[in-house]
Amino acid sequence: MGARDPMTTAYGSPVASRAPAPGGLAARGESGANLADILERVLDKGVVIAGDIRINLLDIELLTIKLRLIVASVDKAREMGIDWWEHDPSLSSRARGRDELEGREEG
Amino acid sequence: MTQAPRGETPRADGLQYAYAVVRDTGAPAAALAGVRGVAGEPVRAVVHLGLAVVAGPVPAEQFGEGPLKERLERLEWLERIARAHARVVDAAGAGTGVVPVRLATVCRGEEGLRRMLETGRERFTEALDRLDGRVEWGVKVYAAPPPPAEPTTAPTAAGSGRDYLRRRRAERRASQERWGRSEDGARQVHDALCAHAEQARLHPPQDARLSGTADRNVLNAAYLVPRAESSAFAGRVEELDRRSAGVRLELTGPWVPYSFVAPSGDDTGRAETRRERSGG
Predict the structure, then answer these.
(1) 3-state secondary structure of B218
(2) Is the entire prediction scored with pTM above 0.90?
(3) How far apart are CA A91 and CA B136, in angstroms?
(4) Could you tell me the pLDDT band of residue B234, with boundaries at 50, 70 and 90?
(5) Residues facing B17 on adjacent strands
(6) Residue B188: helix, strand or coil by DSSP?
(7) B233, exposed or middle or buried, with CB in 10 Å at 0-12, 13-18, 19+?
(8) How confident is the model at residue A87 (pLDDT cuts 50, 70, 90)?
């Protein structure tokens, strides 16, 4: 059957070590998140509200590059014909938009 | 001739960096004690209209428009403030609902912060109500790397040209099959986790240069889960990791629900139906 021992294989490493610690969000091991995890949240998510210092993050060349790096892997996947997330209306707002345009009813 | 060193007394009219919005209940004050922000500054909550914005004074030499644009071009600086920003958001959200504000939102003085609360009041309140008691879990699925391939040497004699092409075709087929399996694995993982979350969001797959992982990222998703169900959710991820051949799962969290601040019409109904069907 090949049930993998999570302690000895490179894959299937247990995520129990990441189980939530008591005390809530502040107890999370923040250093465990990789830079992409953090950037895609603090740069791209959360509330966008204009401060008094107006900067357009997309004008920042480095950020444009980094955001492009995030996007580039989607393009790479598409080149290989992998785009399942785009065709399932339950998964993709783009697919939903297409459905609306084509007048399909949502299930 | 004692004078408070410049910068020690926070100037109410200086630049203020905004991190997150919470309800004005007094709770954040304790959680923010000792927390330092993007410029190493102490942060506190500025209240207005029943809300509070967690903010800290930052020097114009770094966070004024020109200097800020210049510094954001430097990855080390960007990484430092991104991590500091996330730490403050986390601290603000300990035990209470919080709406994170995007990186590099800087206001002029506490007056500017109050203006921000006024402008966004409806949006903040709606999001706080909707996300109350919920956390975000990030799940990434990686395809197992291909086994080390035999080196495909160029053909050396006329007859081996066909063999070479045959071998290359077989390698391409095997690569596509691996992708197919990891696609299936990713979809199964996503479907399984959607049944145990209120909402889900798909993020673009992460590029290896940013994530530092060479394995191909085939699913990068965020799941909204009631805080009390976090342990159970983490357990399901672990279980899926064990059961899914050819892929491995990575869990991050709990996060403040960054990915769910923007409302989406469809998810709630579907997730609720799924939960009803599976018995919650």
Answers:
(1) strand
(2) no
(3) 17
(4) very high
(5) B56, B106
(6) helix
(7) buried
(8) low
* Pair B52, B28: CB distance under 8 Å: yes
**Do residue A36 and residue B68 have CB atoms under 8 angstroms apart?**
no
CA dihedral of residues B25, B31, B33, B35 (deg, nearest 10): -120
Given its phi and psi angles, is residue B141 left (phi above 0), alpha (psi -120 to 50 degrees) or beta? beta
Q: Nearest chain A residue to B142 by CA: give it.
A: A11
B192 contact A CB<8A: no
Q: What residue has token string 């197992």?
A: B144
Residue among B86, B105, B256 whose CB faces A51 most closely: B105
Long-range contacts of A63-69, Cβ-Cβ distance < 8 Å, separation of 24 or more: A63/B72, A63/B78, A66/A39, A66/B75, A66/B78, A66/B210, A67/A43, A69/B207, A69/B209, A69/B210
ipTM: 0.80
* 3-class secondary-structure state, position B93: coil
The 3-state secondary structure of B229-264, one letter per residue: HHHHHHHHHHHHHHHCCCEEEEEEEEECCHHHCCCC
